[in-house]
Amino acid sequence: xxxxxxxxxxxxxxxxxxxxxxxxxxxxxxxxxxxxxxxxxxxxxxxxxxxxxxxxxxxxxxxxxxxxxxxxxxxxxxxxxxxxxxxxxxxxxxxxxxxxxxxxxxxxxxxxxxxxxxxxxxxxxxxxxxxxxxxxxxxxxxxxxxxxxxxxxxxxxxxxxxxxxxxxxxxxxxxxxxxxxxxxxxxxxxxxxxxxxxxxxxxxxxxxxxxxxxxxxxxxxxxxxxxxxxxxxxxxxxxxxxxxxxxxxxxxxxxxxxxxxxxxxxxxxxxxxxxxxxxxxxxxxxxxxxxxxxxxxxxxxxxxxxxxxxxxxxxxxxxxxxxxxxxxxxxxxxxxxxxxxxxxxxxxxxxxxxxxxxxxxxxxxxxxxxxxxxxxxxxxxxxxxxxxxxxxxxxxxxxxxxxxxxxxxxxxxxxxxxxxxxxxxxxxxxxxxxxxxxxxxxxxxxxxxxxxxxxxxxxxxxxxxxxxxxxxxxxxxxxxxxxxxxxxxxxxxxxxxxxxxxxxxxxxxxxxxxxxxxxxxxxxxxxxxxxxxxxxxxxxxxxxxxxxxxxxxxxxxxxxxxxxxxxxxxxxxxxxxxxxxxxxxxxxxxxxxxxxxxxxxxxxxxxxxxxxxxxxxxxxxxxxxxxxxxxxxxxxxxxxxxxxxxxxxxxxxxxxxxxxxxxxxxxxxxxxxxxxxxxxxxxxxxxxxxxxxxxxxxxxxxxxxxxxxxxxxxxxxxxxxxxxxxxxxxxxxxx
Length: 735
Hints:
Shape: extended
Number of strands: 9
Largest sheet: 4 strands, antiparallel
Strand order of the largest sheet: 2-3-7-6
CATH class of the domain at 317-472: Mainly Alpha
Structural class: mainly alpha
Strand content: under 5%
């Protein structure tokens, strides 16, 4: 046991229960020495660690009376509580004291004054109108170039932005110096809540040598960083933007601790690690599995580097062990569909899964169906699922029905329309590349149903709702060239009443004189991002801002000059008006006496007439005034029957329609061609070729066209037309 000494005047947290003669103190130790006013008193220990203190033995100390308050006494006088209640706390003063105390604590640190000075400079640096920013960054660096001051700043919440701004606006050589101080601690900084933004700035604005040094500094910590919530995104960016050698080295760290210390240029994939030594296969695959499980447990599989390793892992696993391997990974399939490698791994997981696991996968992706369908790589997984799953009713219920409400959104998207096309026209080479079809059909061996049977069952279930959607909004399905091609491909595979319902609605749109479509630019060109030099981009942006600021300053000075000249002119005008008013008053008195109305003073003329502004100022003002406010850009449109792309779409529809017995589309189109429409069409070359396409292979439609032209007296219009299409149509009618 240890000896405890308690001084009642100092140790105010001890609690005493007392009366006029005795004090009792709670204790955890039996050997207690109690001092009152510095005088030791005798104690007596009782059971349970309670020490009884007799007040009678205190010499020279004041008596302790019941109800007294003080250090260590547990029962304050009730009257004192009432007095305390009437005393109000000045909270403003309290907050000010706390603020002052906090400031004093910060000042005790050696870096406070430096950080404060740099922050003040940062406020100037971050302004859009600031000039010579690179010079300001140099001054900031001169102040911070003390030991590891920069490293201390980037991990703090209030100073990390300062270093980020310095990395952005610094000159290339200074940016190299700042980066060289951060790179040795890159692995720790990637995991920091605030410092990782500086790593992002180095990757964005740094030179190729800086980026290369940064990646090298991360070697040996790749697996740990991929398992960190913040650093995982940085590793994903590094892998996507790295060269082939850097990618190989990053993947090698997942193969075991051996490759964390030394890299091997001969190892290009996981299979190469045990190609010459098969006895190491089990240990290497075990290491990869452990690393992947560690990352999967943290739900950080949405990473291109992890996807690449995962695909290699599945590909080298023995086929008899694949089912056991992919079952735990099936739950993470939604996280794997963001990259090409991840999608391939997800497809293999689905192929080798049991029926129970497949149902779980479908349930897991159900809430993300629309995003997956419209994703560059995710839509491939859905198509593979449609091609391999035997339960076609589950496809209709779990995949098509949730997507049906967003059918227009899907068809408008470059990737979403491929999912719809595969449901209606699977394996159609006019919609899909032969290489893509070959890859997807590798999954046929994992299903039990015949390919033709499965595809026909899917078509039977989806053609009715799709034809209904076309009948309800036919203008959308012919709104642009891309959607029009999808419409033509779908119509090619619809059957019976579903086809007739769709073409009846579409024929009305095509036969409308006011049918217009949007001109859509090439989606592929819009998606391409041209590489650009960061330094050039920054310098050009700075120059543009400088020019804008100069123009603004000129405009302000011109405006001030106008204001001053206007004020002087107004002062002179007022003097003249005062003199005239006096004269007019006299005249009005005379006029009123004579009965004539008083004359009103003339209005002041415009500023332009009184004050001539310099030419440069006039031009600036004119530009500013005539610049209209930004409005939403109107979607350019063109008449549908004149558009080249839509002309191709209509010809495709007619071509497939002619293969049917009653040519429903041609008949419906002729039913809606009245005199106004035909007169309009005969003046358009492409419209005449559409009529030629309708009648050239169908005698019934040719007779129908002849009768229509005779009834409406349109033969003369055809003969007068000079377009090649009209001449060819005239020849067909005369045959």
